[in-house]
Amino acid sequence: MRKIYYIVISLFFTSCSDFLDTENLTQKNSSNFPVSETDLMSVVTSAFSDASNFENNNAEINQRWRENVFFLSEMMSDDRLGGGRVSAIDGRAIMNFQQTDTDMHLDAWKRSYEGIYKTNFLFENIDKVTYSTEENRKKILGQAYFLRALFYFDLARLFGANVPKILTTDVDKSTPQAKPDEIYSLIMSDLVEAIEILPSVKFEKIPISDNGMATKWAAEAYLARVFLFYTGYYNKESINLVDGSELTKSHVQKYLIDCIDNSGHGLIDDFRTLWPYSISNKDYPYAIGLEYAGDENKEVVFALKYSYAGFRSTSNMVVLAYGLSNQTLLPYGKGWMYGTVNPKIWNDWPDNDLRKRASIWNVLDQNEGVVGYKLNNGNTMQETNYYNKKYMPITVKNSKGQIKNYAHVLYGAIDNFNLNNCQDLILMRFSDVLLMAAELECPKAQDYYDRVRGRVGLQPKPVSLDNIKEERRFELAFEGIRYWDLLRWHDAERVINENMKDIPVITLGKETSVTVKFRTETGGFLAIPNSEILLSNGVLKQNPGWDTNDAFYVGE
Q: What is the rounded CA–CA span in Å between residue 554 and residue 281?
């Protein structure tokens, strides 16, 4: 397995207290920066750290991971519950489409605009340095376009595209909110630029030094994801790009076909080996015979990278969030027990689908070979006896037979479960590319759909939107995608209200039930942080549904 070590760089400016706080944001020493392509690449690296929620300031890291888009997406999905311990009410608030305070999602807002600031800096300085090769210039420019699109897409999904469009480093705190069409036009235009600039290097020929960087193929795949969300949620057929041209379904089809046919990406043979629990194949009965495919396998089109350097800022805290409360059981380790799995997805999932047990751990299933699980181990909430397998702290035995975090045993990371969860966060898999191509009715839609099912031994089914919806639910479960699919299909209110009604749970050791109701008035989006509204002197307007008592979660 290859691992990329990202260095978190403070760069040349202070971490702004707020993106609209112009004075702090622009404090930098620009007299001698940038002077080289290395300087600009350090800005790219720092922007990736924003996407990954790396943070130099340890005082912030304990909170910032909770505002990772992946984590928020899962907490709002019908396949998850808030879970956690009694005091950890944030996960349960998000699950109920409520907030604990008016600045609950400030870090998600700040993180995105910090990243946007850095990409705008790159655009402003791209031609101010000398490059060893034109290819290096294009690499930096392509990353900048991809990253700005990624940050704005995060903002648009979380806050409903009612966000300021900032295209320079000279930020005006009174910048008004843009319209969704404007934001999505920018996002898709940036992705088209990234596609044109980034090289057409097949997966197997990408240098190790470029692992973790965006590729042309990632940009093509993301263009499809953005297009599907925009056209679905906003009931559009196409969108005008910033240059006045129109991006249509047929254009997106061509990009996806290019990715499928020419990227070198593909499906790995065994779905189960995508996930690091397969490392424990000698000691975990379920995984006997499996061999982890590693972080840089051909199915991963784009992922956020995490190191095992033994420092909290480089650990995947999202993985830690889903771990077991106060207990370590081979192969699953300690964490904070957020995101317990809704029994509804387990019950809906056909038993003949290999992905069911590959994705969900049923603690009552003795065939798993995991023993010793304890209920209410730490005043826990909303236990269901089901956990996701894809993103969990993973343990293995060391040479002395002791159970340790896999990063400690395999890579020599510090022996601390809080600090060394090095699993990458996969944001785009090739199976998703195939299913999007099928949904967009590419010429080989049936073949693409059948390839995803055939990989796990399932028989072909006619390609249809209903079948694709089901396939996406099971193939991509617990990967931060489900909630946005429900929104863009306009299924969120119906499905969440049906699937989150009278869910049996065990809270503080007692059997009870939980019901969640989708708050239609919000449109499915989060509240804009109130401090941002105040800083703008009222130029920013709050999203619907967040100015009532129903918007606040007070706990059980």
A: 43
Average pLDDT, the chain: 90
| pLDDT of res. 323 | 96
The answer to whether 325 and 337 have CB atoms below 8 angstroms apart is: yes
Spans in the chain with pLDDT lower than 50: 1-28, 55-62, 310-313
On whether the CB atoms of residues 339 and 74 are closer than 8 A, the answer is yes
Q: How far apart are CA 217 and CA 393, in angstroms?
A: 29
- What would the two tokens of residue 273 be? 């080996």
Q: Which residues are within 8 A (CB) of 466 and not within 5 positions of it... i.e. 6 or more apart?
A: none
Residue with tokens 């489409």: 97
Judge whether 223 and 252 are in contact, CB under 8 Å.
yes
Rounded to whole angstroms, how far apart are CA atoms 288 and 290?
6
Structure token pair of residue 203:
């997966």
Q: Say if CB 70 and CB 480 are below 8 A apart.
A: yes
pTM of this structure: 0.93
User: pLDDT tens-digit profile of 8-45?
Assistant: 333 333 333 343 333 333 344 556 788 899 999 999 99
pLDDT at 338: 97
Comparing C-alpha atoms, which of 371, 409, 303, 383 is closest to residue 6?
A: 303
pLDDT of residue 146: 98
Q: 5: which residues sit within 8 A by CB, 6+ positions away?
A: 307, 309, 314
| Helix/strand/coil for 465 | helix
Q: For the CA atoms of 188, 53, 14, 114, what is the dihedral angle to 10 degrees?
A: 20
What length does the chain have?
Answer: 556
CA dist 100 → 19, 81, 278, 318, 553 (Å) = 22, 17, 38, 20, 5
Neighbour count for residue 436 (Cβ, 10 Å): 24
